[in-house]
C-alpha cells in the first residue's frame, strides 16, 4: 500500500491511498485529517480496511503532493552512515549513530521546487531512505524495532555545507527553508520485506551521482530505530532519515553544487521516485 498526503487547488489538505492509476483514494474523515493521526489512531490495519472500502478518488493532476507525513513530531536524520561516504568526507567511521534534527518546513513534497538558498552557493544534494514510524515506543530492542515501522519513503536530505560546518552542530546547514524533499508517498513495510536489499540512487539532471545498497549502511535500520528510542519516545508518524551514500557534490572534484534550473531525483526501486526542481530562494522578507 502507498499512502500519501496531498493538497487541492481550493487549499484543502488530506491523505489517502495512491492507486495504480495515479488517483488517490481519500481516507480522511471528520475526525482524522492527517496521516500522522491515522497511523496513531487506526494503525496500518485500519488504514487498509478503509482503503479497501474507499470509493471517492481524487483524479491524477487534481492535487499537489505534500510530504507524506506533514506534521511529524520529530524528524531525526543520520550522518555518515555509509562507509564510502564517511571516507569521501575524510571522517572516521562513527562508533554511534550521528543524529541531528530537521524541521518540517525545511522540506517539501514531490514535484515542488526546493530553494537554492540566497545565503550560500554550497547547496548540496543527498539521496536517502526515510523510515516512518508506525507504533513507536521507548527503549525498543533491535529485535522489536522493525515491527515499529509503518513504511519507507524517499528523502532528499539536501545540505547547505558551509552553514553545516560553522560549528560542531549541523543544524543550520540542515534546516534552510524548503531545502529538502520527502515523498512522493510512504510505501508500507509489508511491501518491503527486506529493506537491506534496497538501492538508493541520487540523480542530478538525469545523471547518476549516488548509488549504494542499504546493506552497506554502517548502522542498520533496526539499530537506528532502537538507538533513537533510547533517548526519545518514538511516535506514530516520526521520521528517521538513514544517511546518504557517497557521491555528494562537496566531495567531487570539481565540486558540484545544486543551482537554479537543476532537477534532483531520489529513486529507491520498490519504494518510489522523488523528483524536485531547484529554484532560487525568494526574498525571505516576503
What does this structure look like?
The chain is an alpha+beta fold. It has 2 domains: 64 residues; 206 residues, Fumarylacetoacetate hydrolase, domain 2 (Alpha-Beta Complex). It contains 7 helices and 19 strands. α1 packs across α2. The model has no long low-confidence stretch (mean pLDDT 95).
Mean pLDDT: 95
SS content category: alpha+beta
The radius of gyration over CA amounts to 18 Å
Whole-number count of domains: 2
What's this entry about, in short?
The chain is α+β, with helices and mostly antiparallel strands and 286 residues long.
Secondary structure: elements and pairs:
Layout: E1 2-7, E2 13-18, E3 24-26, H1 35-41, H2 43-53, E4 57-58, E5 64-65, E6 75-79, H3 83-88, E7 98-102, E8 107-108, E9 114-116, E10 123-124, E11 127-133, H4 142-145, E12 149-156, E13 159-160, H5 161-164, H6 171-174, E14 180-188, E15 199-204, E16 207-213, H7 221-231, E17 239-241, E18 263-268, E19 272-280
Parallel strand pairs: 6-17, 8-14, 9-19
Antiparallel strand pairs: 1-2, 1-5, 1-14, 2-3, 3-4, 6-7, 10-13, 11-12, 11-17, 12-14, 15-16, 15-18, 18-19
Helix pairs in contact: 1-2
Amino acid at each position: 500500500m502507498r499512502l500519501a498526503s496531498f493538497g487541492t487547488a481550493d487549499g484543502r489538505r488530506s491523505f489517502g491511498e495512491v492507486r495504480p492509476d495515479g488517483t488517490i483514494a481519500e481516507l480522511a474523515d471528520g475526525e482524522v485529517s492527517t496521516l500522522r493521526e491515522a497511523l496513531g489512531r487506526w494503525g496500518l490495519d485500519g488504514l487498509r480496511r478503509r482503503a479497501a472500502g474507499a470509493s471517492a478518488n481524487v483524479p491524477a493532476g487534481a492535487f499537489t503532493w505534500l510530504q507524506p507525513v506533514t506534521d511529524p513530531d520529530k524528524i531525526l536524520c543520520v550522518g555518515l552512515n555509509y562507509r564510502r561516504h564517511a571516507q569521501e568526507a575524510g571522517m572516521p567511521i562513527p562508533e554511534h549513530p550521528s543524529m541531528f534534527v530537521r524541521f518540517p518546513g525545511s522540506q517539501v513534497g514531490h514535484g515542488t521546487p526546493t530553494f537554492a538558498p540566497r545565503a550560500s552557493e554550497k547547496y548540496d544534494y543527498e539521496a536517502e531512505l526515510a523510515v516512518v514510524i508506525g507504533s513507536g515506543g521507548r527503549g525498543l530492542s533491535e529485535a522489536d524495532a522493525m515491527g515499529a515501522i509503518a513504511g519507507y519513503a524517499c528523502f532528499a536530505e539536501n545540505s547547505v555545507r558551509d552553514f553545516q560546518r560553522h560549528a560542531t552542530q549541523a543544524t543550520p546547514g540542515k534546516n534552510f527553508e524548503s531545502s529538502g524533499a520527502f515523498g512522493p508517498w510512504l510505501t508500507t513495510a509489508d511491501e518491503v520485506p527486506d529493506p537491506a536489499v534496497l538501492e538508493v540512487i541520487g540523480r542530478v539532471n538525469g545523471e547518476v551521482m549516488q548509488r549504494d545498497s542499504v546493506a552497506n549502511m554502517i548502522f542498520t535500520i533496526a539499530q537506528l530505530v532502537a538507538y533513537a528510542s533510547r533517548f526519545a519516545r518514538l511516535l506514530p508518524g516520526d521520521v528517521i532519515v538513514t544517511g546518504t551514500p557517497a557521491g555528494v557534490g562537496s566531495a567531487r572534484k570539481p565540486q558540484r553544487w545544486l543551482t537554479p534550473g537543476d532537477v534532483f531525483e531520489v529513486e529507491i526501486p520498490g519504494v518510489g521516485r522523488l523528483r524536485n526542481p531547484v529554484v532560487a530562494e525568494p526574498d525571505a522578507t516576503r
